[in-house]
Amino acid sequence: MSDNLAQSASAERSTGQAMLRGALGRCPACGEGRLFSSFLKVADHCPACGEALHHQRADDGPAYLTILLVSHLGAPLLLACYIAWRPSAMTMIYTFGAGAIILSLLLLPRIKGAMVGLQWARRMHGFGASATRPGS
């Protein structure tokens, strides 16, 4: 039994797979349970496999990356639209304001999930501290 625990504790975790599972809103360990208990709140434990997820420390990282991506996608598009069609200032404000809000709301949970998956795969912030899971 202790060999089994040592093997699972030292087993390699696929970073890409864990980040993809997290970006899809699934547990980075099993890919079955929901990662979030609400829009951006990470569940304390996976409902499917029991993996402890409360160790995550995404903090402001997902917000910074979301702002970076939305602004880098929006600025060239805004310039191209202005040069091509010369819309009014209010049209630009409304359309690009709404676009930035919608894109931010779509990207933020995916980036946060991917960041939690990265932390789990790399055993950061206590994710690799124990090989046991609740209920095991």
UniProtKB/TrEMBL annotation:
InterPro entries: DUF983. The chain crosses the membrane at residues 63-85, 91-108. Keywords: Membrane, Transmembrane, Transmembrane helix. It holds the Pfam family DUF983. This is DUF983 domain-containing protein.
